[in-house]
Design a protein that fits this description.
The chain is an all-alpha fold. The protein has one domain. Helices cover 60% and strands 0% of the residues. The protein has 13 helices and no strands. The protein binds iron/sulfur cluster (SF4). Iron/sulfur cluster binds next to loops.
Length: 302
């Protein structure tokens, strides 16, 4: 599998990054080209299906904490509530809309592509699909972008476990933003250096992000956070495409993330024992949900 060390030994500009990642992954799986491209195409189709299901659904999750926020964004994008409430371009609006819709689909237990995790599954598809639609980019390039994003995620996962329980949300939504930024730069024909720089920019600006979901559910803050971090990825991609470089390279940003994750108090690593989960509201919601579940699974209801 591709690692930062292996990448470091290569002539980084010898070929596009997605080709380097693809060759390593094909070799790792002892498969022949186009195995990885075929697999990436299947995941891309899964992502597109999850977006189309997500954008048609209109129901709440079981907890009732999420479900219809994407519809609110859709309404405002369709100008049902007037253009004076739309702050961003249609592209950025779509990125936020897709990211939140996919997370809502996840909360309804619909099929999604974990990239890198279920809690951060909206960021990569939202950016890659919205940018591809906006610039009318073909499927071949979309697959290359997904392999690029996947390769970045793979290199990071070789260094640190990608889970809120291991290193906080920086390792989930932060890494997803890093992958998405690289994927977007690939879509827009950025160089390998620009791809890696965008990934570094995205990750280093969310270092320390904690995981503190209310009631232990991947819902609050996760659903809306995917909307925020998808835009964050777009900012990183835009900076990189404009020629702005990350002063600290991606591998060193990952080292910093690992150190911060190791030092992070366990209350902020998916245990729901601190942060938002233990606010007055967080505790109230958790208690209400416990009561709801107790009633639902009581003997009388079984
Ligand atoms: S807050 Fe925790 S559960 Fe939610 S997306 Fe981030 S890492 Fe995952």
């Amino acid at each position: 599998m591709i690692t930062f060390d292996k990448l470091d030994k290569l002539d980084i500009n010898s070929k596009p990054l997605h080709e380097i990642f693809q060759e390593y992954e094909d070799a790792h799986k002892r498969a022949k080209d186009p195995y990885i491209r075929d697999e990436a195409l299947k995941r891309l189709e899964d992502m597109k299906e999850s977006v189309s299901r997500a954008t048609e659904a209109c129901s709440f999750s079981f907890s009732g904490m999420s479900g219809l926020d994407s519809l609110k964004l859709k309404n405002i994008m369709d100008e049902k509530e007037g253009t004076d409430r739309v702050l961003f371009s249609s592209l950025i609006m779509k990125v936020i809309y897709y990211a939140i819709a996919i997370l809502e689909e996840n909360q309804r237990m619909g099929k999604i592509v974990a990239c890198p995790t279920a809690g951060s599954c909206g960021i990569v598809p939202a950016c890659i699909l919205a940018v591809s639609e906006h610039f009318k980019i073909g499927v071949k390039k979309q697959v290359s972008a997904l392999i690029t994003a996947g390769g970045i995620g793979s290199m990071i996962s070789n260094e640190v476990g990608l889970a809120g329980a291991v290193a906080g949300c920086q390792a989930e939504c932060g890494v997803a933003a890093s992958m998405a930024a690289g994927g977007v730069v690939c879509l827009l024909n950025g160089s390998n250096d620009e791809i890696l720089s965008s990934a570094a920019l995205a990750l280093k600006n969310v270092l320390g992000l904690v995981c503190d979901p209310i009631a232990g559910l991947v819902e609050v803050p996760c659903v809306k956070r995917n909307g925020f971090l998808a835009v964050h990825a777009m900012v990183a991609a835009q900076m990189s495409l404009a020629g702005i470089k990350s002063v600290v390279p991606l591998n060193e940003v990952v080292e910093a993330m690992k150190e911060i994750g190791a030092e992070m108090n366990s209350r902020f690593k998916e245990t729901s024992e601190g942060g938002l989960a233990t606010t007055k509201t967080g505790i109230r919601i958790e208690e209400e949900l416990k009561e709801k579940w107790t009633k639902l699974y009581s003997k009388d209801n079984l």
